[in-house]
Amino acid sequence: MTLKRPLPLPDDQTRGFWEGCGDRELRLLCCEDCGTYIHQPAPMCHACNSTRLDWKRVSGDGALYTWVVVHQAPPAYETPYVVGWIELAEQPGLRILSNVVGCPPAKVQAGMRLRVDFQVLNDEINLPVFRPA
To answer: Rg of the chain's alpha carbons, rounded to an integer?
Structure first.
């Protein structure tokens, strides 16, 4: 029996993010009043408390802030793999947690430039991952 990797379950708060991934675009909530990007999705801007938020495409360019190499995982995952916290170019402190792919774990280093890519999981879900730029 082959175990299947668990899939994300888009909901009302995250649907815009996952729809963007389906279009191979990284979209994050952006405050229409002050221009602050918000990730993880939230009902209001953490900078100005506005509730006027909309999904906006971001570049997908960033730098690796920190990471961990996973050596033991459930059977549905191939190890080792890298989980990184990537700071996106759009604003200081705007970070996304994702896999770093296309680079041996031993070559991963803080500050390395990364660019978003998308791993197709099924007909409905593309998972954002990051590759060396």
So the answer is: 16
